[in-house]
């Protein structure tokens, strides 16, 4: 049986510290338990070496933990990734939060092109939330990476919580822990390293992490719920780094005619099947190469060059076969979305397209963010 040091929890991921089995979650050397801030070996390696050890909690374990929110009396701060709204959305959030109010916060706004109108994005997100069946008390934008609007978000949280605890929830990799670390760094009296482990790997936080507020209430970081239809859950660490944007997106514009194809690396494909010549604008990490070819050459190009010219993935990765999704787009500006990879805005009078992604990865269309 694994020995548990039940009075200690990892400040990075929230897991109970144990000193017996290095192969199990929560392990820390006994000497590390004497420090003021205790982190498990998993968080230490993740922070210092960017090394991710497999998470041994199942999706059901995460969901069961979240179900305890239903009976809380708290403000729920739902953080989403504005770069991956569909992939980072928790479907049926009300099942978990009951009657608690929800404040919707879109993180990573620094990734959007500087020309993007922030007010229009907020309006667009309100419409998206309504389509998903959520009526938040407010919709805010921020960047935990650059600090943009973080103080404003904190002020709104303090206003809306009205003396209640605050639970910060979201899917994996939306930046919840980075946001909380930003709050801690702003309130700290002296310089110190982040207390909550952050990374671009899914499943970093493993338990609730409670941070005391001045009125004896708690700000709580929660585990990220896992959406299996996101690209992140298929990719190697090397490929995940390549598709995760770190800088402002640079829109790449292509004028296509019928029977032409765009490849987003070797992970996604968009075939222009029928319609008048149209503008296709790609929003993906700047490191993801885009290739245009004739539709008649697309199959051969993919078979011969996936993992090399068409990368990511790497040559060593084996991904599910690309799955076809057929859409007839309405006139105007419409986004074709690949969960966790980006989107392609199509400006047209109405066209027929076929979009491909590895089987299981979410592909959808939406009213354009830039309409």
Automatic annotation (TrEMBL):
What the entry lists under Gene3D superfamilies is as follows: P-loop containing nucleotide triphosphate hydrolases
List the CDD domains: YqeH (cd01855)
Q: Where is the G domain?
A: 166-230
Q: Which GO terms describe its molecular function?
A: GTP binding
Q: Which residues form the NOA1/YqeH-like C-terminal domain?
A: 279-369
| Pfam family for this entry, one | MMR_HSR1
Q: What name does this protein carry?
A: Uncharacterized protein
The organism named in the record is Shouchella lonarensis
């Amino acid at each position: 049986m694994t020995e548990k040091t039940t009075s200690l929890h990892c400040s990075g991921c929230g897991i109970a510290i144990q000193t017996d089995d290095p192969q199990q979650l929560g392990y820390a050397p006994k000497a590390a338990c004497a420090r003021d801030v205790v982190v498990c070996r998993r968080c230490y390696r993740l922070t210092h070496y960017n090394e991710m050890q497999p998470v041994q909690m199942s999706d059901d374990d995460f969901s069961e933990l979240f179900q305890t929110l239903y009976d809380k009396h708290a403000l729920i701060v739902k953080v989403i990734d504005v770069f991956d709204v569909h992939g980072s959305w928790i479907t049926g959030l009300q099942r978990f939060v009951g009657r608690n109010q929800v404040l919707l916060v879109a993180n990573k706004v620094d990734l959007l092109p500087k020309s993007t109108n922030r007010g229009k994005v907020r309006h667009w997100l309100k419409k998206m939330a309504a389509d998903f069946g959520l009526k938040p008390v407010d919709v805010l934008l921020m960047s935990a990476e650059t600090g943009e609007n973080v103080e404003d978000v904190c002020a709104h949280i303090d206003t809306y919580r009205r003396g209640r605890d605050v639970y910060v929830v979201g899917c994996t990799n939306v930046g919840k822990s980075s946001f909380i670390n930003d709050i801690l760094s702003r309130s700290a009296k002296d310089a110190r390293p982040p207390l909550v482990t952050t990374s671009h790997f899914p499943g970093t936080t493993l338990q609730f992490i409670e941070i005391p507020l001045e009125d004896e209430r708690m700000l709580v970081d929660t585990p990220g719920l896992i959406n299996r239809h996101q690209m992140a859950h298929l990719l190697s660490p090397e490929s995940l780094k390549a598709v995760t944007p770190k800088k402002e997106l640079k829109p790449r514009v292509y004028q296509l005619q019928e029977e032409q194809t765009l490849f987003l690396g070797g992970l996604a494909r968009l075939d222009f099947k029928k319609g008048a010549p149209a503008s296709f604008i790609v929003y993906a990490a700047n490191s993801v190469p885009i290739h245009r070819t004739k539709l008649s050459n697309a199959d051969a190009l993919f078979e011969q060059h996936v993992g090399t010219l068409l990368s990511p993935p790497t040559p060593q990765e084996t991904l599910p076969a690309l799955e076809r999704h057929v859409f007839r787009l309405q006139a105007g500006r419409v986004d074709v979305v690949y969960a966790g990879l980006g989107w392609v805005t199509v400006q047209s009078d109405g066209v027929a397209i076929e979009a491909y992604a590895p089987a299981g990865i979410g592909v959808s269309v939406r009213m354009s963010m830039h309409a």
